[in-house]
Amino acid sequence: MPITKGFRALVDEASAQITTYSVTQVQERLQAGDPRLQLVDIRDLRELEREGSVPGALHAPRGMLEFWVDPDSPYFKPAFGDESREFVLFCGAGWRSALATKALQDMGMRNVAHIEGGFADWTKAGAPVETLEQRRAKKAG
Fold first, then answer.
1. How would CATH label the architecture of 7-140?
2. In b/e form, how buried is each residue of 63-100, taking b as 16+ CB within 10 angstroms?
């Protein structure tokens, strides 16, 4: 069966309906200490192991995201129940996070956005990155 709508069309449609921030906008909010901002890394654990992540970002794998944000799900994570926060998703290039942001909006979330260009643009901008080892050491310490 031929694909009648490719991933780029899906990402473009989602992007037209969601809030998108640049890396610079997110960095400015972090530097200002914006208490509402909560970054969410939706990449696969193997990507985090290989490339690191943004300090302070929650890790919510894309495959579990809808289950983790739904209070009626047995997999619900209370961190996502804080309606005073804005959850800003990112992935590797901004494609998965655009689709995920749209899916969460479709579920009723209004406090969700994503980072254009994802982790690739984050690292290109020289923004802070921490390894999984550094993250684990913070939690243990």
1. 3-Layer(aba) Sandwich (3.40)
2. eebbebbbeeeeeebeebeeeebbbbbbbbebbbbbbb
